[in-house]
Amino acid sequence: AMQATLISIVKTAGLDPFDPRAVFMAYPEKRSMYLPDWHYSPVGDKLLLDALLEHLKKNHPETARRLDAQ
After folding, report:
1. Which pTM was predicted?
2. Which has the least CB within 10 A, 9, 11, 14, 42?
3. DSSP 17
4. Could you read off the pLDDT of 11-41 as tens digits, one per residue?
5. How far is CA 10 from CA 5, 15, 19, 39, 69, in A?
6. Contact between 44 and 33 (Cβ < 8 Å)
7. How many whole angstroms separate alpha carbon 52 and alpha carbon 43?
8. DSSP letters of 20-65?
């Protein structure tokens, strides 16, 4: 509920929020996304990065192109 409230506030401010919750919720092997200390594992890092890059491609294509060029 807190994330939805924050996203609403961010959108109201005219900003473009990035919300990766759906990607993490859809991933079938939840435990593999985390290390024992609950930081993201390499699997979680990749899911997050892929979701962020997809968000940029969809909403900020120029930024995504600059990142691809690096």
Report:
1. 0.84
2. 14
3. -
4. 999 999 999 999 999 999 999 999 999 999 9
5. 9, 5, 11, 25, 29
6. yes
7. 14
8. -HHHHHH-S-GGGGB-TTSSB-HHHHHHHHHHHHHHHHHH-HHHHH
